[in-house]
Amino acid sequence: MKKDEVPQDPSQIHAGIRKLLYAVDEKGEYGGVQSTGWEVENYVTLAAVDELKRQAEEALARAKAGKASTLEYHMYARRMDLATLSATTGIWKWRVERHLKPDVFPKLSADLHERYAFVMGITTEELLGLPDNV
Amino acid sequence: MFDAAAPFQHRQSAHCESGVVSNLLTHHGLPMSEAMAFGISASLTFAYMPMIKMAGMPVIAYRMFPGSIIRGVEKRLGMKWARRRFSDPRAGAAALDEEVRAGRPVGLQTCIYWLPYFPEEMRFHFNSHNIVVYGRDGEDYLISDPVFEETTRCDGPALTRARFAKGDMAAKGHMYYPTELPSSIDYERVIKSAIRWNYKTMNGPVPIAGIRGIRFLGRNIVKVSQSADAEKTLPLYLGHIVRMQEEIGTGGAGFRFLYASFLQEAGKLLNNDRLLEASKAFTDAGDEWRRFALNATKMCRGRAKMDVKALDAQLNHVADREQEMWALLRGL
Fold first, then answer.
1. Distance, in angstroms, between B124 CA and closest chain A CA?
2. Which of A69, A123, B248, B270 is 20 to 30 A removed from A15 (C-alpha atoms)?
3. CB B109 within 8 A of CB B128
4. Least CB–CB distance from A40: residue in B120, B236, B297
């Protein structure tokens, strides 16, 4: 990549921070160039964030309809999935899966609620409740 | 060699680990560029790993596993890192305070999601982000995060949280700084041995690693496009590939420009034209990676017709470019 080809696209994902890329000048010498962002990267990152948001919205609707526990919504809202949640809490996947059921989750011990709430950085009240929207 | 009074120099880098390593080595009396740290640790790679998932998607690595730059420079330079991990977060926080009081900048492994200074859209659960703590001001730690333009700050509880996030590749408070730096380095030997090592990892027989791995990825895109729910999964899959390729500041070329920069620096240092030529060839490979990212994204957005055969062909083209470049370095 040549220095004048370094993308300087407006970015919605960097909050104004410029990243450093390596590129060559007209003599072929490598050096660092700051970049405001690249449209391609912008698009794929926002698409990934949208996908996570969509999962959270769907989980919220399910939880409100009583078809899933509040845990599922909070998991997606914190950009986690079953694997991450299991790994961070140290609770077996099949157990986490069981806790996604609406009739199981509220009855768990305070200890378990606390464990989930801790890795998500929220209180147990928040964990057992739902926001109006995402 | 180590001067507690010398202020820590924040140099922005393309990648966190090579940035932290080169900045710490430089501070401790061994001046080194980011590209050189990356190159001599032989951390360039390509690997398609369907068995390791990240947010439900296979990991595609353009560099060796996190930690390989730290270990790689240790092995090749004959230096030593003091490295500590902790089972108790309080002990980890206390040990950090001790180093800060001694005026010693240290490297820390952290989870991006819990670092409050990261922009919201960049916060994902990724446990191997490297930063330097170089001081403290009241409740705030002074942070040199090499992918940022300027130094920043982070409060104590958030920092401890980020250091002790559990899960895959958990940092367990990992803290490190260089000790025992060699007084002189035989760059000729170090650089050549690193490149020979990298030659082997990129030209190996494993079908999902190195140049063969790049071709494998192309075939796999075709395979994903044949699944029943391809309309939904294929754009997500392509987006994921491009995201892994760009992963924090490698310029969309998966570390290829950083390695090309290393080859150029090494070529000048050793007066070796082969290395300079290889640097140019690898810049071409990096440009090809960028064109692939551009095309794949256009297809995801519906701005070009979805054509998986074309993407497959383009990845084969990338693989050809990389193969040509390694052929230049054969038997170095």
1. 7
2. A123
3. yes
4. B297
Instruction: Among B252, B264, B287, select the one facing A38 at the smallest CB separation.
Output: B252
Q: What is the pLDDT of residues A75-133, one digit of tens each?
A: 999 988 898 899 999 999 999 999 999 999 999 999 999 999 999 999 999 999 999 88
* CA distance linking residue B122 with residue B189, whole number of Å: 39
Nearest-Cα residue of chain A relative to residue B240: A44
A&B contacts, CB < 8 Å: 123
DSSP symbols for B163-178: HT--STT--TT-EEEE
Contact A84 B55 (CB under 8 A): yes
Burial class (CB in 10 A: 0-12, 13-18, 19+), A111: exposed
Contact B287, B253 (CB under 8 A): yes
CA A6 to chain centre: 28
pTM of the model: 0.93
| Coil vs helix vs strand at B49 | strand
Please give the helix or strand (H or E) that residue B61 lies within, else none.
strand B57-63
Task: Name chain A contacts of B239, Cβ cutoff 8 Å.
Answer: 43-44, 47-48
Vertex B48, ends B42 and B52: CA angle to 5°?
Answer: 105
**Nearest residue in A to B288, CA atom:** A1
